[in-house]
Amino acid sequence: MGKSKKRRKQVNRRNKTRKNKNKNNKNNKNNKNKYKDHTISIADTDFGQKEYIVSNIGMNAIFKVDGNNKASDFNKDTLLYKYMLNEFKRRLLLLLKENKKSRNILKKKFKIKYSSKNIVSKLDKLSSEKVEEIYFALL
């Protein structure tokens, strides 16, 4: 009887380690692919041109900015907040690049001097509320 008990213990140990290994592998796979569908991918069209395919969260962020929603209304931990803030900054850069009046408003009202080299770093330093305030003032 002593021999059969030892075998049972060994078999049980082997099964436990196998189960644990399988669980660890599944967790690693889930972590790698966690944000995979949120990235922007590029697809080739029929004539050799490239189209950018934006994820669902990216499109939701664009629609919410179009609807005059604020990024500060959402949790800072969510991806939607991050995408909305990036969309505000991107639109601000386009506004300032094209329109000289908006640069003057930025300089007079917010005391931020526009230069094409420094404006990106200046916008990154501002809080989300400040970026939204500037964006809505320039519209």
Describe this structure in words.
- With 139 residues, the protein is mainly alpha-helical.
- It has 2 domains: 1-34; 35-138, no CATH class.
- 65% of the residues lie in helices and 6% in strands.
- The chain is built from 6 helices and 2 strands, in the order αββααααα.
- The chain has a two-stranded antiparallel sheet with strand order 1-2.
- α2 packs across α3 (79-98), α3 packs across α4 (100-110) and α3 (79-98) crosses α6.
- The relative contact order is 0.08.
How far is it from the N-terminal to the C-terminal residue, by CA? 86 Å
Total helical elements: 6
How many β-strand runs?
A: 2
Q: What share of the residues does DSSP label as strand, in percent?
A: 5-15%
Overall morphology = globular
User: Regions with pLDDT < 50 over 5+ consecutive residues?
Assistant: 31-37
Give the tally of structural domains: 2
Largest sheet: 2 strands, antiparallel
Enumerate the strands of the largest sheet in spatial order, edge to edge or round the barrel.
1-2
What is the chain-wise order of helices and strands? HEEHHHHH
Structural class by secondary-structure content:
mainly alpha
Measured as a percent range, the helix fraction is: 55-70%
Give the mean pLDDT.
78
Our Rg estimate from Cα atoms comes to 26 Å
